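A note on notation is needed here, since sequence and fold are reported together in a single record. The reader may check this reading against the record printed directly beneath this paragraph.
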Amino acid sequence: MKSIFLVEDDKEIAKNLTLLLSAEGFTAVHAATQQEAVSMLSDSSGRKFDLALVDISLPDGNGFAVCTEIKEAQDIPVIFLTASGDEASVVTGLNMGADDYITKPFRPRELIARIKAALRKSGQSPSVFELQGLSVDTASGIVKKHGKEISLSALEYRLLLVFTANPGSIITRDRLLDELWDAAGEFVNNNTLTVYIKRLREKIEEDPADPKIILTVRGTGYRLGGGDVSK
């Protein structure tokens, strides 16, 4: 049974999440503060977790510090819980090594899907992907094109990660919508998905009008272009 480390100061949210995780077959260990979380991580009993859910806002600190402690203690996926919708905070979290984030309020099935996806990818995905001169370092969250760093929004970065994590797969628009739902603090529909694909292509493609990295599969969705995808 997978063990989830839940760091959340709101008692009602923590209670509901613990019940949800239990119903989905997970065990949950809860810490309400940064100090409590750090104490649990340094516990000499050697408790091991498989994934952490960490609230960015804590009464005695913040989730960023907890994320750093978690990554140093145990190399496990970290998903941030945030109510702010503050893109700068989200990008900071991703750059610090967080694997994903979800904005409150969120749908239970959306959170469980994110948890399962992060667990599947844990320890399986290479930390650096290279394709058509594009380099994506998932450990640092840095994206470069021909060695020059590219600035992506949090949603554009997540969109790119969906493709790099599935290099041999056709990804349907419905799946992308599920991955990106509420990532920008608003509902992402088919029209806005098209806009985000266009924006991402403008930043990573040599010629956005003739894309080589994110290819359109007519009537189905998209797939990652051919070439080297390496560690």
